[in-house]
Amino acid sequence: DDAMPRNASAASSDGDGGRLWSVQTVAEFLSVSPRYVWRLIASRSIKTVLLGRRRLIPDTEVRRLASDGTA
Questions:
Q1: DSSP string of 35-55?
Q2: CA 22, CA 41: separation in Å to the nearest integer?
Q3: Close Cβ partners of 45 (under 8 Å, ≥ 6 residues apart)
Q4: pTM recorded for the entire structure
Q5: Which of 3, 55, 56, 69 is positioned for an S-S bond with 20, CB 3.0–4.6 A?
């Protein structure tokens, strides 16, 4: 899939077959700073999943941000 980051190892699976992206990977994919992604998370503009101590972003949210041009 073209939309997946080259360093796909930074993403993991959520059990439903969907991908979970790290904040850093999302920032690189959208060409924004990690701080901007954290601001979106803090304002609840994007849904996240807490896995242990890691905050991960579902693929559906990344695709929504990319298609909406929100980032």
A1: HHHHHHHHTTSS--EEETTEE
A2: 12
A3: 70
A4: 0.73
A5: 56
CB 58 within 8 A of CB 18: yes
d(CA 2, CA 49): 23
Give residues with Cβ within 8 angstroms of 38, minimum separation 6.
23
**Tokens 């979106």 label which residue?**
40
For the stretch 6-31, pLDDT in tens is 554 455 655 555 899 999 999 999 99
* Residue 60 to residue 32: CA distance in whole angstroms: 18
How distant, in Å, are the alpha carbons of 11, 16, 18, 61 from that of 34? 15, 26, 22, 15
Q: Are 11 and 5 within 8 A, CB to CB?
A: yes
Cα gap 54→69, rounded to integer Å = 25
